[in-house]
Each structure stands twice: as C-alpha cells, then as structure tokens.
Amino acid sequence: MGFQPIAYKGLETGDREYTSHVLHAGQVTLVLTSPLNPGETKINQFLTQYGDAVYDVAFSVENAQATYEYAIAQGAKSVSLPRAFKDEEAIGFCRCYAGVRYSH
C-alpha cells in the first residue's frame, strides 16, 4: 500500500543540522535525510560528489561482527569497525560502490 510516514526530525523538533523523514512499508524502513545548513560537511560532500543518491543501506543481521568480517573477506572496504551500543547490539560499516555504505 506504499510507504507511510512514521517519524520526523527537523527544525520543529529542535534539530538545526538535518531534517529526516522516516517511512515504513512491510519490512522496509527508509530514512530520508537532508542537511539544513550549507556548512554541514558529511552529507554535503556526498551530495556534491554523487548528487541525490543512497548514502547508506542497513541490514538487520544476527551477528554484526561475523557479517562485517565476511564482507571484508569478500572485498568490501571498511568504513568503521563494528561497535556495541547500550543494548549490546553492534553495528558495522562497509563501503561498497560509488560511496554507498552498508550498515549491519
């Protein structure tokens, strides 16, 4: 039935750097983010190089460390090592093609 908005962050919620719209359909959740400040560097550099494009693709996996190690063994380039958060889940980042990164 299409994507439904489920969350928003921006000027109205107190964020002066980015505006983000979270959309959900089935098992897919999209976060669309734009910088509000032309001086912001990370996203603006990506947009300058690639134009409007996908910056990050995230997957939910059982074992982020093993998935990260497998991706590196298959030729992915590391963006950062997997790290644990408060709930003991981990996230890792690998770069794939054209600046897009995979989070897991």
Short description:
The chain is α+β, with helices and mostly antiparallel strands.
Describe the structure.
This protein folds into two domains: 1-51, no CATH class; 54-104, 2,3-Dihydroxybiphenyl 1,2-Dioxygenase, domain 1 (Roll). The chain contains two helices and seven strands. It has helices at residues 42-50, 64-73; strands at residues 4-9, 18-25, 28-35, 56-58, 77-84, 90-95, 101-103. Strands 4-7-6-5 form a four-stranded mixed β-sheet, with helices on one face. The model has no long low-confidence stretch (mean pLDDT 80).
Number of helices: 2
DSSP strand (E) fraction? 35-45%
Order of helices and strands: EEEHEHEEE
Distance between the termini: 27 Å
The low-confidence parts are none
Structural class comes to alpha+beta
Strand order of the largest sheet: 4-7-6-5
**Level of helix content?**
10-25%
Overall outline: globular
Q: Biggest sheet, open or closed, and with what strands and sense?
A: 4 strands, mixed
